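Give me the 3D structure for Acyl-CoA dehydrogenase.
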Amino acid sequence: MSPGFDTLAAQPAGSSERDALRATGAEFVRREVAPHLQAWEDAGEIPRELHRTAGDLGLIGVAFPEEVGGGGGDLLDSLALQEAMFEAGASSGLMAGLLTAGIALPHIAASGDRDLVARFVRPTLAGDLIGSLAITEPGGGSDVARLRTTAVRDGDHYVVNGAKTFITSGVRADFVTTAVRTGGPGHSGISLLVVEKGTPGLTVDRSLRKMGWHCSDTAELSYVDCRVPVANLVGEEGSGFGQIADQFVVERIALAVHGYGIAARSLDLAAAYARDRETFGRPLVANQTVQHTLVEMRRQVEVARTYTRAVAARHVAGELVVAEACLAKQTAVDCAAYVCDRAVQIFGGSGYMHGSEVERHYRDARILPIGGGADEVLRDLTAKLMGYAP
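Predicted structure for Acyl-CoA dehydrogenase (390 residues):
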């Protein structure tokens, strides 16, 4: 683990330790990611070796507690790291695939189960294992309370039957933290169960091809009479919905970082191109309409970044920011949609070509208003939380 990672949580945003974290993340992207990213996009996945390199540097576990093998930092350290990686050229899909531990492990780490931590959390943070989180089901979408995958107790095992879809890193995963129904209907009947790769009956039915996030493998999974040890239960039986809900704030803030992160990178690329590109005998940036577009792009990036950082700081301070996290995500993904679109427009035909960086960000941006709670669902939730709904 790189020096200084163990003291990140106590440091302000401009501290030397957090600056060192940013520098490490940026250099990692420049050396280990950028030269190969298009090849990984075309292959549809990132290599396992990249996880090991990131684990050696402490990048995967920076915001996890030291007692489970993490760096001892917090959400603000994770934001600082991810911002730097986006600035250096990481894609949203790359970050989703490389840092899937951020959604697969928090429930296990928080459970305090030493056996589960030793078997799954520590090796994943070290980059030796890859985990995924399976909640969404075919036809189920965002309605977690109605999931239908069942886990029936049979002695020292649960017998799991059902299907999951849109599972990030599900093709490569060594284990899947799976939301299952162990009880009756509704929220109280849901539990989390770790299902390991190689369990008879667990099958990757399809590797899903997507509009964007090409290097992030996405799976459709089926569970047919999978016998999973009771020891793989995360927390108490019936506590799954609460565990999932507890992580929604962090997940939505993380997706907000994806939004303004790729937007900021697209803005930088577009501004540089506008300065270098000559049209009708003068730089493209000499056109007032281009200048105004760049200013509007910058305004949206700054608003999304500033607001998301503020909400993250409040979360770290212990405030309840469920509604604000929804607003941050929506603000940032709206920013990404606009800025990435305008970046392609400024690049013109070059920006429309497969393999150009702004084209990749444009495609990747489209999933952000869907994943982690669709915009429509989050607006309904925010209206209720803020007292705007009857």
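The chain has three domains: 5-99, 131-238, 247-385. Let me know if you want a second pass.
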